[in-house]
Amino acid sequence: MRVAVIDVGSNSVRLLAAEIDPNGGARAIERDRVYVRLGDDAYNFGRIGARKLDELEFVAERFALRARTLGVERIETIVTAPGRQVSNADELVDVLADATRAPVVVLSAENEARLAWEGAVASLESRPDTVAVVDLGGGSCEVAFGRPEVGPTWVGSCDAGALRITRSYLAHPRPTRRDVEVARISVRDLLDVMEPPHPDAALAVGGTARAVGRIVGARFGAGKLDALADRIATDGHESVGAGLDVTPSRLETILGGTLVLAELARRLDTKLEVGRGGLREGAACALARVESAAA
Fold first, then answer.
1. Burial, 230: exposed, middle or buried (Cβ in 10 Å; 0-12, 13-18, 19+)?
2. Structural domain boundaries in the chain
């Protein structure tokens, strides 16, 4: 079965068209991404403005058209933090529904965490007894803990996204050490709502986690992340990302995201490994199950 998921987040809008195999795995046949930065409007105004909505409409319509040319059987648009953090979420949904001519779902934080956990754990070659998945987006951060044979048994979320932390505490292109320390303390305070169990393994998913992995390697603990944050603050994000496959838009928020990942690694008491699957893969598998049940 072929399905497509359009993922509308605070930083970017992404397309995943995938084939779902009989075992429930998702094999990507097409991926695309456009940085729209809805989170800037969400943070600054508490609503998505007309200009961003127009840009979003154009991107979503193009993604839906591309998905249909690939012969997908079902398309769904999922909206993460922007749909939970703005006052005109209904208008946002209407724009997406008109552009894609397909269902639009605003995910709760819990459902986002569960889908990210499913997509990340499904990509594991060997499965430990317990797994935590950190899904760090631009507007929020979700953590889910569970057993592969059971699913998530603990879920937590807070508005400590990479873009939100950057805009709140690290807006200057070259933040001072004091700026970084204030941001680090604020991240710690925000994450106090989370007391996750300690897993046997932990995966980090999302664009920031992948970017960090390209800089320091696919597995990183709090110490390595603290050192990266200090390096970014000292040398600048452009220098740290030079020559690597990391977009300028991602580098702009990587310091804030690194601080969040470091604190979560401390709370989970383990190193994080960049996951190969995540939210979109989990959503694609869930969409295929619904389509199969309806057939």
1. middle
2. 2-108, 124-274
